[in-house]
Specification:
It contains 25 helices and 22 strands. The chain has a ten-stranded mixed sheet with strand order 16-17-15-14-12-19-18-20-21-22, sandwiched between helices. Helix 2 runs antiparallel to helix 3 (about 110-140), helix 17 runs antiparallel to helix 19 (about 765-775) and helix 21 (about 830-840) packs across helix 25 (about 925-935). The chain starts with 11 loop residues before the first helix and ends with a helix. One of its GO terms (cellular component) is plasma membrane.
Length: about 950
């Protein structure tokens, strides 16, 4: 069915549309007229301004061209430069073009007259004046040129220049006038625009007033009537019902609607009252159910805590929170008697501590008898916010253990609300539950203390203990077992299967098959005895660990419940046994070998007639072997004295440099070995027992020679490190395996390889050396690489704990230049004197008393100079060494200094290019001064 659209005599929509279109048309006409007028005015002003500007620019260009014409003319007159003349003609052409443009523009009468004069002048100047002037210049007739210039040709020029200046001024005035007229026009347009907008706003205001009267006011009345209806009031809208437009229809409909709503409201109000009553009843039931559910959840959580928790502090905290929530305490405190741990609510910290520390003895006794009681106190109104007095109810209850002793106390207060009998009964029930929970915690703590005590006892034993069930699972082990066998299961929270731990033993043990068999047999139920076995564990880069394990069965009554394995580290005992065996073998070998030689050569001497030469050889051999036996016995005696603390050390101030040089001089060295002593120290004075240090040096140098069976170079280097003197002895021998280095300083310890067994030895040398260095408050260590060689180091404290003043500066200078000097001298005292002087100046000293070894070192080491003594013993001449050095390419340029008691030989000095010849005795300072000069000349 088509919708019926009512018709109105006065349609609001049509009225509003007509008003809107009237405003739009009026506004469009006014704005369009204003825009057209403004645009026409602006275009006219812009056109005038552009014409003035263009004419001004053209006059300026003509002025510049005019000036340039006469400037080029004067240039030509002065210098007869054809180029200037050509430029002059070009400028005249430019000026004529600009003049033509000027003539084409709208001109005033004055401008028109100027145009004709300039046009006439430029024609006259081009055709008459300029040709005459050019001819005068070419004829060098400057007098005629001046007359031509004064004849009136310049008047037109000056007139034009004056005009351009005045024209510029006039143009500026015209522009300013034009600008002022523009401003006046803008002001007029602004006033006109404001006037038009005022008219538009007045019209819009009139229209809006009609809209408000015809539309807004009736709507406001309807709104007021609606609000009044909503609040139950009445507003008369009869005048609106009489309107013949949409608002009249709306007012009539609103009136009818209000009457209908009032009738239905009465019915709905009655129904709503019934529903509200039902809702209140349901809301009360819901709140009661939610409260019961909340209490039930809290009770379940409390039961869970009481059943499973093992933390007493958490137990009293959860119990306190539950009771406070259920029984609505205003303030409360619950604390443990033994530990003093507490939880409180509504109490200051100071109040809590006071209640705990100063609880009355009578109340404690009453709690032990009654368990729960309530005290009622009257509170004065003056001390509280309340205007009247009221009662406080203090609840005291407790948790007792099985012996009826207090475990925890609960104190709670409710202001103005007493505790009912049911509440007290429920609270007692909760406290009884808590007592059971505490008994369970006490039992657990007692069991845990016993377990920890047993574990502590087991862990304190040095033997590794491992308890295995009859099913092969590890149930218990101690810390010692971790250290012995590197057990991977650091914490046993559960049983470790047999396959897993047996696999570990099979992995680490050298005798893996035998050990696994032993462990499996001990686990089976039929095994009831005690068995023992030894096995070893190989460690990466370290000596193996030797372990003895014994197994014994554990019974509960007659039933076997498992097997106890006890692992004992017997590495020390094993090594002692091995050392004893090695000692017996070594001593037997080291004693029997020289004794066999002594007995054999002695029997030969007694049994046969032997030539004197052979007798002497036999006796020397007997003496050498007897001395070897004596040294061996002395080593044993020294070790015995050191271990018993009977070794006496006589500490004196000695020079380590002199001591090393003396030892080297008395050392018997075979031709295969070359010993080089490099002294880099600046202070080598130490406090030491000279005899023991000599013994130390003989041991260490002897080892370097002995363990370099193929010969090679042995370097003894001495230098200062901090407040010590450090000596290193480096060989090129067979070296030492890295795994054997940590145990080399033990007594009777020898590296077990075929090369060293051939060399022999007791293994006491390094142990004695370490003891000697230790007694001197020094340190000893070694570095070695098998097959490459060994370097052993030892340090001794300096006598006065300081080094020479210039040590740092000298060390820096050494790094900049080579300061190594070789001294070849058989007199040890003089060599020491020269060495000390040169070291004080920062030189490094290499000392030799053998010409052959000195030559071998000199051709290999960069030297700053060589000091040579000419007389070096029987059949040893220093000049031979000088000649050999000068003939070798590496040493022919090294400065050589002769230090001799013989008279100076000028012939040999010139022949071998000797730098200096010092005749003994001479001041050592002269030698150091000369060598310093060599360093500077490098």
């Amino acid at each position: 069915m088509p919708r019926l659209i009512p018709t109105f005599k006065k349609n609001i929509r049509n009225q509003f549309v007509r008003m809107l279109w009237s405003i739009i048309i009026l506004f469009t006409i006014i704005v369009g007229a204003f825009f057209i007028y403004t645009n026409v005015t602006n275009e006219r002003l812009i056109s005038e301004r552009e014409a003035i500007s263009e004419k001004e620019q053209l006059v300026q260009k003509m002025n510049e061209s005019f000036n340039d014409i006469f400037f080029r003319a004067r240039g030509y007159y002065a210098f007869k430069d054809k180029n200037e003349l050509n430029i002059l003609y070009d400028q005249m052409s430019v000026f004529e073009m600009e003049l033509q443009k000027f003539g084409e523009m709208p001109l005033s009468s004055e401008e028109n007259l100027l145009y004709e004069e300039l046009n006439q002048f430029i024609v006259t100047y081009r055709n008459e004046i300029l040709p005459k002037a050019v001819s005068y210049v070419e004829a060098d007739n400057y007098e005629a040129l001046r007359d031509l210039s004064n004849s009136g040709a310049n008047e037109s020029v000056n007139s034009f220049i004056a005009y351009t200046k005045s024209y510029t001024t006039e143009t500026d005035m015209v522009v300013n006038d034009h600008f002022n007229r523009t401003l006046d026009q803008i002001k007029f347009l602004t006033v006109l625009c404001i006037f038009l907008f005022i008219i538009v706003f007045i019209i819009i205001g009139i229209i809006l007033k009609r809209v408000i009267q015809n539309l807004i006011s009736p709507i406001e009345k309807l709104t007021t009537a609606t609000d009044a209806f909503a609040t139950g009031d009445y507003v008369d809208i009869t005048p609106l019902k009489n309107k013949e437009d949409e608002l009249g229809v709306l007012a009539t409909s609103f009136y009818n609607m209000t009457r209908s709503i009032q009738e239905k409201e009465e019915v709905l109000t009655t129904q709503n009252e019934e529903l509200m009553a039902q809702q209140d009843e349901l809301q009360g039931n819901q709140e009661q159910l939610q409260q019961s559910l909340s209490h039930l959840q809290q009770y379940n959580e409390l039961n869970h805590v009481l059943t499973f928790t093992l933390d007493k502090e958490k137990l009293i905290e959860d119990l306190h929170n539950y009771l406070r929530s259920i029984y609505e305490f205003d303030s409360s405190l619950m604390y443990l008697i033994d530990s003093g741990e507490f939880v409180s609510k509504g109490l200051a910290k100071e109040t809590t501590e006071r209640l705990i520390k100063h609880l009355e003895i009578d109340k404690i006794a009453r709690l032990e008898e009654e368990k729960t009681f309530v005290i009622c106190r009257e509170v004065k109104s003056a001390s509280n916010i309340a205007n009247t007095t009221y009662n406080d109810y203090d609840l005291y209850t407790c948790i007792l253990n099985s012996e009826k002793k207090l475990v925890a106390i609960l104190m709670a207060t409710r202001e103005g609300r007493s505790f009912s009998s049911k509440e007290l009964t429920d609270i007692n029930g909760h406290m009884n539950q808590a007592s059971i929970a505490f008994e369970r915690i006490f039992m657990y703590e007692e069991v845990e203390r016993s377990r920890k005590l047993n574990q502590t006892i087991i862990d304190t034993t040095n033997e590794g203990i491992q308890f295995v069930s009859k099913y092969g699972e590890v149930l218990l082990l101690n810390k010692a077992l971790f250290n012995i066998i590197r057990y991977p299961f650091e914490e046993i929270d559960d049983k470790v299967p047999q396959q897993l731990w047996l696999k570990h033993f099979q992995k680490i043990a050298e005798e893996s098959d035998e050990l696994v068999y032993f462990l499996k047999i001990a686990i089976i139920e039929e095994f009831t005895n005690t068995r023992t076995m030894r096995y070893s564990i190989q460690q990466d880069g370290r000596s193996p660990v030797f372990v003895e394990v014994y197994a014994t069965s554990v019974f509960e009554g007659d039933e076997k419940v498992g097997t106890m394995f006890v692992h004992r580290d017997i590495t020390s005992e094993y090594e002692v046994d091995m050392m004893k065996s090695e000692l017996v073998s070594t001593v037997s070998h080291e004693l029997r070998t020289p004794l066999s030689s002594v007995l054999g050569f002695t029997e030969l001497l007694l049994a046969k007639e032997i030539k004197p030469e052979r007798q002497k050889k036999y006796i020397e051999t007997i003496h050498k072997e007897a001395k070897r036996l004596t040294n061996l016995i002395n080593d044993f005696l020294d070790i015995q004295r050191i271990e018993s603390g009977q070794q006496v050390y006589s500490m004196n101030k000695i020079s380590l440099t002199a001591l090393i040089e003396d030892v080297l001089k008395n050392f018997q060295i075979d031709p295969q070995h070359n010993i080089r002593f490099v002294d880099e120290s600046t202070n080598a004075i130490v406090s030491a027992d000279e005899e023991r240090i000599i013994q130390l040096l003989f041991n260490l140098i002897g080892n370097a020679i002995k363990f370099s069976p193929n010969g090679g170079e042995i370097i003894i280097r001495m230098q200062n490190i901090n407040e010590t003197v450090q000596v290193s002895i480096q060989d090129c021998g067979i070296g030492i395996p890295e795994s054997a280095i940590p145990s080399l300083f033990q007594k009777f310890k020898r590296v077990d390889n075929s090369s060293r067994r051939k060399i022999g030895g007791t293994g006491l040398g390094l142990a004695l050396s370490k003891e000697i260095i230790s007694k001197h408050k020094g340190d000893i260590w070694l570095e070695s690489e098998e097959g490459i060689g060994t370097t052993i180091f030892f340090t001794l404290p300096l006598y006065d704990q300081e080094i020479v003043e210039n040590r740092n500066e000298l060390t820096e200078e050494k790094t900049i230049s080579n300061r190594t000097v070789m001294i070849v001298e058989d007199d040890l005292s003089l060599a020491l004197l020269l060495s000390e002087e040169l070291k004080s100046k920062g030189f490094t000293i290499i000392y030799h008393d053998d010409l052959k070894r000195a030559y071998d070192d000199a051709i290999q080491i960069p030297l700053v100079g060589i000091v040579i003594d000419l007389i070096m013993g029987e059949n040893m001449d220093g000049w031979d060494l000088v000649e050999a050095l000068r003939n070798h390419k590496n040493t022919k340029e090294i400065p050589i200094i002769i230090s001799s008691a013989l008279d100076k030989s000028s012939v040999n000095m010139d022949k071998y290019n000797v730098e200096e010849y010092f005749t003994k005795p001479y001041p050592p300072e002269e030698l150091s001064t000369l060598l310093l000069k060599f360093v500077k000349d490098q």
